[in-house]
Amino acid sequence: MALRLPSPFLAKMKSLLGENYDNFMKSYEQLPYAGIRVNTLKISREEFLKVSPFELEPIPWCSTGFYIRDGERPGRHPYYHAGLYYIQEPSAMAPVELLGVAPGDIVLDLCAAPGGKSTQIAAKLKGEGVLVSNDLHPDRTKALAKNLEMYGVRNAVVLNEDPERIAGAFPRFFTKILIDAPCSGEGMFRKDESMLKYWEESSPLKFAEMQREILTSAAKMLTPGGRLVYSTCTFSPEENEGMIAEFLNNHQDFRLVPVEHSDYFSPGETKWLTGQGHVGDDVLIQLTGTARLWPHKVKGEGHFMAVLQREGELTSGDDESKRAALMLQDDGTLAVSSRTDKPRERKGKLSLREEKMGQSGKNSKSGKSAARQQTSRRGSGDRQADYISIDPFYDFIREQLHGSLSGYPVLYGNHVYISSLPEDRLKQLKVIRPGWYMGQLKNERFVPGHPLATALHPEEAARYVSLSSEDGEAVRYLKGETLSISEERVVCRQGAEAKGYVLVCIDGYSAGWGKWQAGMLKNEYPAGWRWTSV
Predict the structure, then answer these.
(1) What's the rounded Cα separation, in Å, for the pair 120 and 310?
(2) CA distance between the termini of the chain
(3) Known catalytic residue: 62?
(4) 151: which residues sit within 8 A by CB, 6+ positions away?
């Protein structure tokens, strides 16, 4: 059945598009396009092409993005649960490509849920630098955190904050900022018909007010020389070119970086702004360098993008990720700095903070001794407080992991995280995930968390087992079943026995934990993540 588009919307599009209006309307007779994006944190593009269970067609604006055929169900393949790809609308892959993220950048994804663009940013960071992913809506941050965990992101912090409060904590801090702004969603009508129920003729102006505040806050957080990409999935000029014109008028230290136009990146629409006194000719010229993805010109939905750069020489700010307090060396030894301050309790959240590492290699034993003194307190009132030692966590990573691991150990209650930022940078903010979740301290032992497993590679674990995606055993694991696995299939690092925690992989790509003993693999896959489709 054909979409019943609102009359005010149609009249506005006819005025905007002129002779292209008929072609635009024909796009609604076509099915929306589906795409997946390869997660290069886990598998290279080339390797994925060798093992892909789908027929793929490259998406021209994203080297790791591919169209898939109509009718494919990528969410029902074990590779999806192993985090090898993200299911994403093709046009939505474009904004991050324009952001120009490189390893070592300090990046803010300001309106990040459900996390597609954050996982795309994380893949480009390659584990180096910092990613702060934020969303204002508490319920949406759950999906954001889960997607970052599923795709093996180690260096992300997840916030649930108002942009202005983040600006207060991180002035001129980020080298790259993405604003995938909340908008009237006109570009998604074909893909998601339910969005029509929320659209009103006044919607563009209502969202423009919200976008204005977000852009103003973001400008405060971008370091000199830094880049900001503003994107929407709407056609409304008020939310697109008009918003950027207003921003440039009010921020003289920003300039628009022109997007190279092509068969798919069309120039911004400036005709409707011509003659408006508040928009100068110099700004109008710049606005032609914005980009639109039109559904009648590309295989994708409607999108708008503008690339902004702050004047000045780019600096990486105070990149705390390079001064990490904990480090697992490539040879498997653990280095931990000695404490210089006592643990503190604030609003029920307990953290361990350490100075730049002073131990390494042979001194890891003294680092362990120092770690035994690093405890945090819990309890309240007049009851005598219990003390939680983080030492079981250090013991676990020393015995169970092998390879490079660095960051700031942070305790929230008895939950251990490794953060790319010291805890002080996050104080007084609503933190959903302070970093990579390691696991939980229970009864003087450490229980590894699922996100620790999903971000590991087989060679980093003391032992691993690889399940086949083709004979059903991977699906059985994903459903939570106990498996019969012979000892010969458990690959152990030199010196390790088969018994114990095992990194469970699907065709060699990490998916979760198991415990192996006497030919049986006890399933540690979390109930909330399990395969439920038939």
Answers:
(1) 23
(2) 29
(3) no
(4) 39, 41, 42, 83, 86, 119, 122, 123, 454
Question: How far is the C-alpha of 406 from the C-alpha of 416, rounded, in Å?
Answer: 14
Q: Where are the beta strands (DSSP E) in 363-471?
A: 375-378, 386-389, 405-412, 415-419, 431-433, 436-442, 445-448, 463-467
| Strand-pair partners of 177 | 108, 228
CA distance linking residue 207 with residue 205, whole number of Å: 5
Output the CA–CA distances (angstroms, integers) from residue 364 to 281, 340, 356, in the order listed. 64, 17, 14
Sheet holding 34-38, edge to edge: 56-59, 62-68, 34-38, 85-87
Q: Which helix (H) or strand (E) holds 230?
A: strand 222-232
Alpha helices in 251-363 (DSSP H): 281-287
Nearest to 517 by CA among 495, 502, 496, 527: 502
| Distance (Å, whole) CA 424 – CA 258 | 38
User: Angle at CA 64, nearest 5°, toward 237 and 473?
Assistant: 125
- The SS3 assignment for 353 reads coil
- Cβ-in-10-Å burial (0-12, 13-18, 19+) of 388 comes to buried
> Do the beta carbons of residue 169 and residue 100 sit within 8 Å?
no
Pick the catalytic residue from 111, 183, 233, 505. Answer: 233
**Per-residue DSSP letters for 35-65?**
EEEE-TTTS-HHHHHHH-SS-EEEETTEEEE
φ, ψ dihedrals at 306, nearest 5°: -135, 135
Digits of tens for pLDDT over the chain (534 positions)? 478 999 999 999 999 999 999 999 999 999 999 999 999 999 999 999 999 999 999 999 999 999 999 999 999 999 999 999 999 999 999 999 999 999 999 999 999 999 999 999 999 999 999 999 999 999 999 999 999 999 999 999 999 999 999 999 999 999 999 999 999 999 999 999 999 999 999 999 999 999 999 999 999 999 999 999 999 999 999 999 999 999 999 999 999 999 999 999 999 998 877 655 567 778 888 999 999 999 999 999 999 999 999 999 987 544 554 455 555 555 555 565 433 333 333 222 333 333 222 222 333 333 333 333 333 333 333 333 456 788 999 899 989 998 777 888 899 889 999 999 988 899 999 999 999 999 999 988 999 999 999 999 999 999 999 999 999 999 999 999 999 999 999 999 988 999 999 999 999 999 999 999 999 999 999 999 999 865
What is the pTM assigned to this prediction? 0.89
Q: Looking at this protein, which amino acid is placed at residue 173?
A: F
Omega within 30 of 0 (cis) for the link into 114:
yes
